Structures are given as structure tokens and as C-alpha cells.
Amino acid sequence: MSETFKVCFCCSRSFKEKTRQPPGSIKRLFEAYSRNGKMSSDDLLRFVSEVQGEGHAGMDYVQGIFNSVKHHNVFHIHGFVHLNAFYRYLFSDTNSPLPLSRQVHHDMKAPLAHYFVYTGHNSYLTGNQVNSRSSVEPIVQSLRKGVKVIELDLWPNPSGNAAEVRHGGTLTSHEDLQKCLNAIKENAFYVSDYPVIVTLEDHLPPNLQGKVAKMLTRTFRGMLFRSDSESCKNFPSPEELKKKILISTKPPKEYLESQAIQSSRRTPGTTNMSWRGENKIPEEDEEDEE
Fold it and tell me: EC number(s) in its UniProt entry (predicted)?
């Protein structure tokens, strides 16, 4: 499908939109309820009443349809729907043959890995990934929209004595890690009780990893999921993990690179012990309970 639009009110540009073409039956239906390739709100109201059998529909209902497809209609005069937007509408949730329920209706007792999860990326950034501000605000907004995976990039602060959240190698600002953890704790289950996964992109040395592990334990306490064994055949189910926060991470890239260099220099029989679980999330001790 070709689209044409004006640039600076004087020049025209066109491009070919790579979309699946509506079948002939849809084209004929659109032609029957449109004029000159455009469907007005009156035309659409006539369609939903006569073809869809939605006798309750009024102009407010039709306006809701327009709002749902307007991002497919930017190349036509405001207030009209073109063929491609009409086609998208027919197969959208707005035109679902069954009433959509906001209640969970799937089986949530299968292992967690069997599900798609609503995931965030660089969840602390307020804008682009080059020079935007880091804040807890996007974390709160994401969790309140139903996002269930929050990503935090962890780097040493300039003094090297604490971890901070920032997008390394860019001009973005940093945010306090404890503030981010508090925001997650307070909003994790705002939408549902199903688990939240905190993904840590770890660029920390071992001493700061230990500090972060204690911060996670102290902040999340009973919410923090702890596996009963070092390895398990299957993840627990979302149902079993309700009200739990899971931590997902892996050895830092910097550590893996140094390991590769060291292993090439090591003599047979020696091992590097710097990453043997010494920074696992610790059990809460008496000081943390207080």
C-alpha cells in the first residue's frame, strides 16, 4: 500500500507501507460503506449497526473506534478512516467477538517460563538512552501499567564505594539504587499479585555485589524469592510466585572478559575462586530484622 504525505506544505513524499493487504471481501465491504476511499464517522456508524448488529452504537462508540485506529490514519484528512485502518480495526481488540475481561482467565499454574512477560528495558530512563535523566518515575509508571520485568543497570559510583543506577558509557544521569528498590517494592503489585522480576545488568566488582545483595535482602525481605536448591528442573508457576520479587542477573561482562584472559595464562589445575557464589543474596540476619 502506497502512502503520500506533504512536507512543509509544499513538497510531497511517498513510501510503500509493508503491510498485509486486505482480502477482496474486506475491500468490497469497505467500498460499500465508504466514499472515495474514505469512511466517515456516519459511514462507520452505519457499518457497525447494519453489518455488526451493534444496535446500541452511537457517535461516542464510533469515536472510540476512531481513536483506536487513528495512528493508522495519519495520512488522510482528520475524521476519516481509510481501508488499511478499517482492516486493522476489524482484527483488533476493539472489535473482539467476545467481551474482553480484565480478569485473568488463563491457567497460571504452569512453570513461569511458559508465559510471555510484559518487560521493560532501561526502566529508570525518562527519555532516550543517550542523554536523558534517570529517575524512579518511569519505574513507578511502568509497574502501574502492568510491566512485570524491571531492568536496572548497576555501575560503581565515581568514588567506587557504592553502586548506582545509570546507563554506562552515555551522558545519562544516575539514580540512587535504594530509591529504585523502594519504588519497586511499593508498586510491584499495584496491578496484580503475580511476580515481578528485577533484572540487574551487573557491572560491579565483587565487594559492591555483596553490598547490593544485602540491600536487596533488607529492602524486599519476605517478598524476595529464594530457591530451595541450586538448580531446579522447572520454575515455579506464577500462581506459586504471587507477591514475590525475583532477581535475575549474571556475571558481569567485565568479569567474564578478565576470566578469559586469566584462563589463558593459568597453569593447569588452578582455578579462580572470585565468582563462586560468595555474593549470593544472603539470608536475613538479626541486624536486618531490626
Answer: 3.1.4.11
What domains can be seen in the chain, in order of their start residue? Answer: 21-95 (1.10.238), 112-284 (3.20.20.190)
Long-range residue pairs from 159-165, CB within 8 A, at least 24 positions apart, any chain: 162/208, 162/211, 163/204, 163/208, 163/211, 163/212, 165/124, 165/134
State the pTM of this model: 0.61
Supply the mean pLDDT for the chain: 82
d(CA 106, CA 108): 6
Q: Which amino acid is at 153?
A: D
Phi, psi of 59 (to 5 degrees): -65, -30
Q: Active-site residues: which are they?
A: 121, 167
